[in-house]
Amino acid sequence: TIMVRPGRYVDTLVISQPVVLMGDTTGGVLPLISARSLYDFGVVIHTTGRVELQTLQLDTLTQGADVLRADTLVVRGVEFRAPASTYYTSLYVDTASAVYIQRSRFFGSGTGYYYYNGAITVDSAALVVLDSSTIAEYGDDGVDLFGVDSVLVRGSTIRHNYGYGVYGSGTGWT
User: Fold this and answer.
1) Helix (H, G, I), strand (E, B) or coil at 27
2) Which pLDDT tens digit goes with each residue over 159-168?
3) Nearest by Cα to 100 from 123, 68, 122
C-alpha cells in the first residue's frame, strides 16, 4: 500500500505492478492529481495484478485513469472531474477480469454533448460492479460497456448525462 499525502500532484502516474494507492484524507481533503495541460492523463495502469485506487481526486484531466490491463481494478472513494472540452472518458478500462467501482463520484462539465465524453468505458471484462456511486453532467453516456459478461449496478445515481445512463454492446447483451 502506498499512502498519498494531501496536496496537489501535477503529473501522470504510471502503475506497472499490483498496488493499493490510497489517499491520506487527514483534514478531510482528498489528494489531487491534476493536469499540466488539457491532454494529460492522471493514472495509467498496465499490470497483470490487482490495482486499487482509493480516496483520491482526479481533476481537469483528458482522462483520469487509463487502464490498459489489470486482473482486478478497484476504484473506491475516488472523485473524477472532467473538463468541458475533453473527448475521452474519465475512467477507461481496456482489459480487466473484474472492475469494482465503489462510493466514487464522476462529474462532467455539464456543458452539453461532447463526443465520447462519458464517465466510464469498459471494453473487455468478465464483471463490472458499480456500487453506491454518482455519475452526472457528462456530455455523452454515463457508462459504456463493450464485451462485458456481467454487470451489477446497485445504489448508484446516474443523472443529467447527454446520452444513456448505461449503454452496453457486445457479448451477452441483447
Assistant:
1) helix
2) 999 889 999 9
3) 122
Query: Residue 27: what are its φ and ψ, rounded to 5°?
Result: 85, 0
Query: What average pLDDT does range 87-111 have in this prediction?
Result: 92
**Which residues are CB-neighbours of 75 under 8 A, at least 6 positions away?**
52, 53, 65, 91, 99, 100, 101, 102, 104
Contact (CB, 8 A) for 50 and 70: yes
Take residue 145 and report the three cell numbers written for it.
460497456
Q: Please count the other Cβ atoms lying within 10 Å of the Cβ belonging to residue 96.
A: 25
> How many angstroms separate the CA atoms of 60 and 80, rounded?
9
Residue 40 predicted with pLDDT over 90: no
Q: In angstroms, what is the C-alpha Rg of the chain?
A: 15
Using the predicted structure, report yes or no on whether residue 172 has a pLDDT greater than 60: no
Question: What is the C-alpha to C-alpha distance for residues 134 and 79, in angstroms, rounded to an integer?
Answer: 9
pTM for the predicted model, two decimal places: 0.93
Q: Which three cell numbers stand for residue 45?
A: 495502469
The three cell numbers locating residue 7: 496536496
Give the mean pLDDT of 46-66: 92
